[in-house]
Amino acid sequence: MQKENLAEAKDNQRGGKMITQTLYWYLGLRGLAMFAMSLHFAIYSTFLLSKGLNLFQINLVNVVFYTTLFVFEIPTGAFADIFGRKTSVVLAGVFSTAGTLVYFLASGFWGFAAAESLLAIGSTFLSGAFTAWAIDRLRHFGHETDLKKLFVRENQVVQVVGILGGLFGSWIATRSLALTWLASSSCFCFGPP
Question: How far is the C-alpha of 153 from the C-alpha of 147, rounded, in Å?
Fold first, then answer.
């Protein structure tokens, strides 16, 4: 009986550590993804104008993003259901890294449209898969409390990191507007978008 209680206590302790580790990983990677995205928020239009696009073309580039997002949302969700959330999250990182690298290298409308397509596909691969992975992992290790606190904390992290990323991206842009995309791509190499 005592051995069973001791084994159960060890499992509970291990589960508690894994819950804490999952929370830190989830919040850290969400923060890193927001930092990567926010690096170019403040200079987005200025960057595209500097590359010769007019305001209409800049808006068309955004239309490409949202159209691709619409078209790929269901197929990438099905992909995550079939091949797993982890695979979907990894592909989200691959497509997002590729998209920001294309932005860094592109010089015209079609290059930026291609970059937005890649970023949108990356976004759809991530959509729901990362959060579902975290929730499944937390429940697997015995996390039984309400997850509202996690989502409130996530929102706080994303907002603070978004501000910091925008400021840092603006500072990078004083050296080169294109470098913000390279910095963003570097961040995506280490975490999901």
Answer: 10
The string of DSSP codes covering 87-128 is HHHHHHHHHHHHHHHHHHH--SHHHHHHHHHHHHHHHHHHTT
1 domain-assigned: no
The answer to whether residue 157 is domain-embedded is yes
24/80 Cα distance (integer angstroms)? 23
* Top-confidence residue, 16 or 106: 106
Whether 18 is covered by a domain: the verdict is: no
How many Å apart are CA 31 and CA 37, to the nearest integer?
A: 10
Domain extent, residue 168, equals 39-140+147-188
For position 5, what pLDDT does the model report?
46
5: enclosing H helix or E strand: helix 2-38
Is 34 domain-assigned?
no
Instruction: Please check the confidence at residue 184 and state whether its pLDDT lies above 60.
Output: yes
For the ranges 39-48, 51-60, 64-73, 124-133, the lowest mean pLDDT is seen at 124-133
pLDDT of 9 higher than 50: no
